Amino acid sequence: MTSYLNVTTTDSDNKTVSSLLWLPYVIITVVCLAGLIANFCCYHRKRRLKYLRKVEVMETRERVIERRMVLNLIKAKYRTCLIDEESWDRNRTNVMTLGPQQIRNSTSDSGIAHL
Questions:
Q1: How many domains does the chain have?
Q2: Parent domain of 68
Q3: Separation between Cα atoms, residue 103 and residue 88, nearest integer Å
Q4: Residue 30 in 3-state DSSP?
Q5: pLDDT: is 25 or 15 the higher one?
Q6: Which residues on neighbouring strands pair with residue 7, listed in sequence order?
C-alpha cells in the first residue's frame, strides 16, 4: 500500500483502473465507425434512387419515341389507304362515264392486252 496525501490505494485498484483505460477509445471508435457506415449507406441510397429515376426517364423517352414512330406509321398507312381509295373512286367514276369504245382505247393505250 502506498499513501500519498492521505490517499491510500492498492495495487489491485491500479490494475483495475489501468485495465479499463482502453474502454473510452473503443467506444469512440465504434461511434465513429457507426457514423461512417450510416453516411456510406445514405450516400449510396441517394445515388441509387437518382440512378433509378434516370433509368425511368430514359425508358419513358424511349417509349415516347416508339409511340411516335408507331403513330407515324399508322398515319402513313391511313394516308395511303385514303389515297388508294380516292384514286380507286376516280378510276371507277371515269370508267362509268366512258363508253365501251373509250374503255377499249384507254386499256390499249396503257398496254393491257385484250383477249
A1: 1
A2: 10-96
A3: 16
A4: helix
A5: 25
A6: 4
